[in-house]
Amino acid sequence: MLDKLFFRKKSQEHKIDLDDNIPSHVAIIMDGNGRWAKKRALPRIAGHHEGMKTVRKIVKESNFIGIKVLTLYAFSTENWKRPREEVDFLMKLPGEFLSTFLPDLIKENVQVRIMGKKELLPLHTIKAVDQAIEQTKNNSGMILNFALNYGSRDEMTSAVKSIAAEIKNGTLDPSQIKESTIEEHLMTHGLKDPDLLIRTSGEVRLSNFMLWQLAYSEFWFTDVYWPDFSENHLREAVSQFAQRGRRYGGV
Ligand code: V07
Q1: How do residues 37-64 score in pLDDT, each as one tens digit?
Q2: What does the alpha-carbon distance between residue 237 and residue 197 come to, in Å, rounded to a whole number?
């Protein structure tokens, strides 16, 4: 690992030093697939398909850099409002991605996870992701966490519901509720908060993504459309992160 990083250190444009503060959890809003396609007079689904190939590249590079958790916003609770054909196409991407890349992910010791309301996905999508989760559950390397039918307000609403149910059945008293109680009921329980959020394609908002978990994260934005996002862009974001000091509200 040491000499590999050293080799790349000399050969890459954005240097990441061995003693750098590598973000352990990186979250990405993969935006701009539709605009990428439009620019080329292609259908939107062509952009999504190209975006899927970028996912593979960025997963590989993240693992190489030493990122421990990579969370990718693949489908939001709002995305159901898109045209039916586009939604149907998007729902086939997890299956296509996994049938192509799952063997590589297994070799690379990556653990696949999903956060979001899985029950509302088409059965073929659920089957594909469940199989990947099952086949990688004992992997000890990078966690690849796909936000699929995920919305932060939906996540918080579910958390409040289950906390309320525990109060009602007597297993929890309101006076015992702490920040950690809420954290334990979120879909990210057990994962540390993202250190770095990346959003592509020039939009500068959170769009209902990990509102609780991003409270102290560094944000990094680029105008680049997701299908054009490269390993070098990721290294640029990570090396800028490594240079920024973080104070957590202290002095
Ligand atoms: C999707 C490609 C990336 C750009 C954003 C929208 C389109 C990979 C997955 C995926 C999800 C779960 C999983 C394995 C792969 C995916 C959707 C859309 C819905 F276990 N890319 N990708 N899922 N796009």
Answers
A1: 999 999 999 999 999 999 999 999 999 9
A2: 9
Strand order in the sheet with 143-150: 111-115, 143-150, 69-76, 25-29, 196-199, 218-221
Tell me which residues have their CB closer than 6 angstroms to ligand 1.
Answer: 30, 33, 48, 51-52, 55, 74-75, 90, 93-94, 97-98, 112, 129, 132, 146, 148, 226
| pLDDT tens per residue across span 166-195 | 999 999 999 999 999 999 999 999 999 999
Please tell me what DSSP assigns to residue 30: -
pLDDT value at 246 more than 70: no
Dist. CA 75–CA 116, nearest whole Å: 9
Q: Measure the CA angle with vertex 234, ends 146 and 5; round to 5°.
A: 110
Residues 29, 201 contacting (CB under 8 angstroms)? no
Mutate to test the pocket of ligand 1, among 33, 50, 146 (most ligand atoms within 8 A of CB): 146
- CA count, 13 A, side-chain hemisphere, 145: 24
Nearest to 238 by CA among 4, 6, 3, 13: 13
Reply yes or no on whether the pLDDT at 6 is more than 50. Answer: no
Q: Which helix (H) or strand (E) holds 131?
A: helix 123-136
Query: Which pairs count as long-range contacts for 1-8, CB under 8 Å and 24+ apart, including other chains?
Result: 1/66, 4/64
CA geometry: angle 233, 71, 140, nearest 5 deg: 105
For each of the domains in the chain, give its residue range(s) and CATH number, in order of start: 20-151+195-242 (3.40.1180.10)
The pTM assigned to this predicted structure is 0.94
